[in-house]
């Protein structure tokens, strides 16, 4: 079945460590996104990519990095520079070029920093 | 500053009730408004409303866009326990339509 797969679902990290969250889609979508979801706050955009080898910062990109080497994959690295990394991270994709229309979301990755 | 406000923040109803969720927006150059349902983890798309499509319906769910009032409502009739979820509303950012401005969501609990 087509969809978006995020891994791991749960991840624990010690302070000072970088971690990489995986996001893979087989929907043949051009655009991919990373969001962060915290209690009491709306979804916040971290990074997005409209095409392979290109990506743009979202509203809260500091302390994060991404790559888009393949159309299917958009991994997110949470670096030690991210001050408050404990959160629920959602990856999404869209096939509407130039329009943030229907997004397909993965099941999310919950990161806890100990 | 562009923003999206949803109300109520939470709601508890009994099975069979009808509920109305609200989404108000302030955004320049409005293009569309989207509704999503988040049951446990992954939000799933419900509707997209635009100036040319101000009313959408799917089964017991329906949504209307009121451009004059800068708002939208999501109606759920004959609610079921499976409707329990967080309902999210979003509007594309005026300066970059790849960025969505999200509301905080309405948490709906349907009790048997």
Notes on the structure:
The complex is a heterodimer of chains A (114) and B (112). Chain A has strands at 4-7, 10-13, 19-25, 31-37, 44-51, 54-57, 64-66, 76-78, 87-94, 104-105, 109-113. Chain A is mainly β. In chain A, strands 2, 4, 5, 6, 9, 10 and 11 form a 7-stranded mixed beta sheet that branches. A 4-stranded antiparallel beta sheet of chain A has the order 1-3-8-7, with no helix packed on it. Chain B has strands spanning 3-7, 10-14, 19-26, 32-38, 43-50, 55-58, 61-66, 71-76, 85-92, 100-102, 106-111. Chain B is an all-beta fold and 112 residues long. Chain B contains no helices and 11 strands. Chain B is globular and about 45 Å long. Chain B is 0% helix and 59% strand. The interface between A and B is medium-sized, with 25 and 23 residues.
Keywords:
heterodimer, A: 114 residues, mainly beta, globular, B: 112 residues, 11 strands
Oligomer: heterodimer
Alpha-carbon distance between the termini of chain B? Answer: 41 Å
The string of secondary-structure elements of chain B, in order, is EEEEEEEEEEE
Global structural class of chain A: mainly beta
Largest binding interface between chains: A-B, 25 and 23 residues
Whole-Å distance between the termini of chain A?
A: 36 Å
Rounded to an integer, what's the Rg of chain A over CA atoms? 13 Å
Number of strands of chain B: 11
Main sheet overview of chain B: 6 strands, mixed
The strand count of chain A comes to: 11
Short description:
With 114 residues, chain A is mainly beta.
Secondary structure elements and pairings:
The complex is a heterodimer of chains A (about 110) and B (about 110).
Chain A: E1 4-7, E2 10-13, E3 19-25, E4 31-37, E5 44-51, E6 54-57, E7 64-66, E8 76-78, E9 87-94, E10 104-105, E11 109-113
Parallel strand pairs in A: 2-11
Antiparallel strand pairs in A: 1-3, 3-8, 4-5, 4-9, 5-6, 7-8, 9-10, 9-11
Chain B: E1 3-7, E2 10-14, E3 19-26, E4 32-38, E5 43-50, E6 55-58, E7 61-66, E8 71-76, E9 85-92, E10 100-102, E11 106-111
Parallel strand pairs in B: 2-11
Antiparallel strand pairs in B: 1-3, 3-8, 4-5, 4-9, 6-7, 7-8, 9-10, 9-11
């Amino acid at each position: 079945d087509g969809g978006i797969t995020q891994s791991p679902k749960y991840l624990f990290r010690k302070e000072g460590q970088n971690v990489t969250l995986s996001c893979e889609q087989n929907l043949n979508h051009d655009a991919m996104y990373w969001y962060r979801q915290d209690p009491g706050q709306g979804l916040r955009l971290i990074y997005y990519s409209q095409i392979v080898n290109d990506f743009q910062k979202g509203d809260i990109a500091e302390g994060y990095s991404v790559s888009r080497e393949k159309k299917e994959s958009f991994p997110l690295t949470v670096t030690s520079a991210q001050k408050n990394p404990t959160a629920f991270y959602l990856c999404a994709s869209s096939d509407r070029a130039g329009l943030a229309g229907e997004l397909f979301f993965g099941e999310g990755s919950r990161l806890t920093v100990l | 500053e562009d923003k999206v406000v949803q109300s109520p923040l939470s709601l508890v109803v009994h099975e069979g009730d009808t509920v109305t969720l609200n989404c108000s927006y302030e955004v320049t150059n409005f293009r569309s408004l989207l509704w999503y349902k988040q049951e446990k983890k992954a939000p799933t798309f419900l509707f997209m409303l635009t100036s040319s499509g101000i009313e959408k319906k799917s089964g017991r769910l329906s949504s209307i866009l009121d451009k004059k009032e800068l708002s939208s409502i999501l109606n759920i009739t004959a609610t079921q326990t499976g409707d329990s979820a967080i309902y999210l509303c979003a509007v594309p950012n005026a300066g970059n339509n790849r960025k969505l401005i999200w509301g905080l969501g309405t948490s709906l609990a349907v009790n048997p």
